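Predict structure. Chain length: 497.
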Amino acid sequence: MTHKTTLIDRRDADPDPISIDAEAVNSKAARALYKKRTPIYPKISGGAFRTLKWGAMIVLLAIYYLTPWIRWDRGAGAPNQAVLVDFEGRRFYFFFIELWPQEVYFITGLLIAAAVGIFLSSALFGRVWCGYACPQTVWTDLYIHVERWIEGDRNARMRLDKAPLSMDKARKKVTKHFLWIVIAALTGGAWVFYFGDAPTLMREIFTGQAAVTIYLFIAILTFTTYALAGTMREQVCTYLCPWPRIQAAMTDKHAFNVTYKVARGEPRGAHKKGASWDGRGDCIDCRQCVAVCPQGIDIRDGDQLECINCALCIDACDAVMEKVGRPKGLIAYDSYENVDRAKCGEAPVYRFVRPRTILYAVVLAIVSVAMLVGLMNRTTLSLDAMRDRSPPFVRLSDGSIRNGYMVRIINKEPRERMLELQVAGLPDARISAMATNATPDGALVVHARPDDVTSMRIYVVSAEATAQSNDIRFVLHEPETRTTTERHAIFMAGGPR
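Prediction complete.
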C-alpha cells in the first residue's frame, strides 16, 4: 500500500516532460486536423472567363430545368415527354431514341464516352470540366451569385458576418437561406420530373397526391444541394471529390492549366505609380487573384489540388496589369513545360498531339462509332423461345413427338405489326397455337402489339425426329417490311423408338 502511494506521489510531483511534449504536439495536431472551416468570400470579377462561366451556368441550368418539359410526339398511347426514364414501362426515351432494358449497353457506352471525354479534356486543358461544367461548380456559382445579390460583394459580406446580430443581418441571412432552399427544392423537383410525366407530377406534388417516394427523393436532393452548394462549397472539391486525385494520371507537363508566370512575376512587391520596373517582377502583390478565387487559394503558389481551373484569377490579374500599364497574361492558361522554358529564356512550345491525347481520342472515337453503328443497326423486332422442361416432350397417339415452347415477341415500334412465325430445321415439323390463324404454308399469323412484348404458347410436332436432341430455328417474318429474325432452339424427341 505504501509503495503504491509513493508511485502516485512521485508521478504527481515530477511528471514526465517527454509525455507533456507528446500530449502538446498531439493536441496541436488534432486542432489542425479538425480545424473549423474558414469561410471564403470570392469577389465578383469581370472579363472573358467570367463571361464564359456565366454563359456555361445559364445554358447548363436551362438544360437541366427545362428538358423535362420538352414534348415529343411518339404516337397514340406512348409518352410524349422528350427525355423520360420510365421505370414502370421499362423504357428510356431520348427524343427519337427509345431504349429497352435489354439495351442498357447503350447507357454503358454513353458513360464510357463521357468518362473518356473528360480524360481527353483534362489532358488538353486541365480541370476545365471542374471549372465550368461540374454540377457542384454550377450550383455553387449560382448560390454565390444569390449571396452576393443579397449581402453584397466580398467586403460587404465579410463585414456582415463580423457584425453583431441585428434585424438587418437577420433579414439578409434568412432571405439568403430561404432562396437557397427554394433553389435546392427546384433542383430536386426537376430531377424527379425526368422519371415521370412532368406536368402530371407537378400537379400531384402540389396537390399532395404524389407518391411518398417522390417527396422523399425531393427532400434528399434538396438537402444535398443546399448542403453541398451552400455550406460546403470548396470542401466538396477538396475532400469529397475523387477527381483531383485522379487528374494527376490524366495530365502531364504539356497540358494547359491556369498558371502563374514565375519568371515574369518575381520578385513581387508593391509598386508606386511612376516608379521603375527594373529589377523587379510584374506582380504587385495585390492579391486580387486570391480575392476572386472560389477555392480561396493563391495561384502563385504553383499547382494545387484545390484549383478547379475556373480562370477567374486570370481576369482579375489582367485587369490589374491593364491598370498599372503592364502586358496581360501574368496569369494565363499555359503548360508547365512553357513555364519552365520561360525561366530559361526559351520560346514556348505547344504539343496538343501527344501519345495520351491520341489514345483518349482514339478510344472516344471507337466508343462513339460503335454506339452510332449500334443505333443505326438497332433491330426493332426480336424473338425469344423457351422450351418446356417438364415434360421435355410428349408422345402423341399417332407416334409423333410434341414439344411446348413459350415464345416472346418484342415489338419496339409504336405500331401494331402483322408477323408470320414458322419453324425450320425439321422437314415435317408443324407449328400450332391457341387462337392463332395459320397461313397456307403452315406459318402462324401473329399480331404484335405496339411497343410491347407479345407472349404466346406454341407447340411443335414432328414424326420424323429420331435423335434425342434436334436443332431447330424459329423464324419470324414481317411481309410488309421483309424483316426477318430467327431464334435457335432445341427439339427433344427421346431417341429412336
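Summary: The radius of gyration is 35 Å.
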